[in-house]
Design brief:
Blueprint lengths: L15 H26 L1 H44 L1 H17 L3 H4 L2 H19 L7
């Protein structure tokens, strides 16, 4: 008696239950293959997944950068406070100079006399003269 071989070289199942089991297994394998192909062919879903991945990585990167910047700022602020506590005189002198400059800067125009205002206006007229076509830029 000769044995019957299938196309792929396996022996065919001898009983009906083995045949049904093999058919179910083949259907399951085929279903998984079709599902994998459908997932690969769904470009829109793959694009959404890619965008979600990029968003997640961007959020993680920003969070990491913010943490680093915050830690660095706290460290610098701590060193500044320590410097002020150890050597207060230069910090007080610098603060006083900045305040004096802030108070006197707006008054600089009032301290200048009418002659210096006229000279400033002449310089302004001369600076604009080549572009205006005349010596009097306001006409």
């Amino acid at each position: 008696m000769s044995t019957i071989h299938s196309k792929d070289g396996h022996h065919p199942p001898l009983e009906l239950s083995e045949l049904r089991h093999e058919i179910e297994q083949t259907r399951a394998d085929l279903g998984a293959t079709v599902e994998a192909l459908a997932t690969k062919a769904d470009v829109k879903a793959r694009a959404h997944e890619a965008v979600a991945d990029v968003k997640a990585r961007a959020r993680e990167t920003v969070s990491h950068a913010v943490d680093r910047a915050t830690d660095g700022a706290r460290s610098r602020m701590g060193r500044l406070v320590q410097s002020v506590r150890e050597h207060p005189a230069p910090w007080v002198a610098g603060t006083v100079l900045v305040l004096i400059a802030a108070v006197l800067a707006p008054q600089r125009d009032r301290l200048a006399g009418p002659r210096s205002r006229r000279l400033a206006m002449r310089r302004l007229v001369r600076a604009r003269a080549p572009y205006s076509g005349s010596r009097r830029w306001w006409r």
